[in-house]
Every structure is written in structure tokens, then in C-alpha cells.
Amino acid sequence: MPITDPDKKYIAAHSLLYVNICRKCGARNPLNNKKCRNCRSSSLRPKKREIGK
Ligand SMILES: [Zn+2]
Fold it and tell me: What architecture (CATH level 2) is domain 6-46?
């Protein structure tokens, strides 16, 4: 079921896409984290953002 409400779509996309991914273990971390909460690695990358493709 597609999401038609733009506000809800924005919230969903934001919570899904605006995270950091640990390069070592793949855990999701908050954007403002400098280190992975799972393995303490500092090798984090932002999740790729492509909305509405
Ligand atoms: Zn990690």
C-alpha cells in the first residue's frame, strides 16, 4: 500500500534514510554518533539517500 500523505512519507523516509551505517558490522547508528554503538568502530558512513525512485 503506497503512502499518499506527504507528511507521513517524509517522516518514514527520514527515519529510514537518515542513519549512519557501520562499515564493520553494519549496525544502524544515529547520525550524530561518531562511533558505532555495537562494535565501537569509528568507521561509519551515512546511508545512501534516494527517495521516490
Ligand atoms: Zn559496528
Answer: Irregular (4.10)
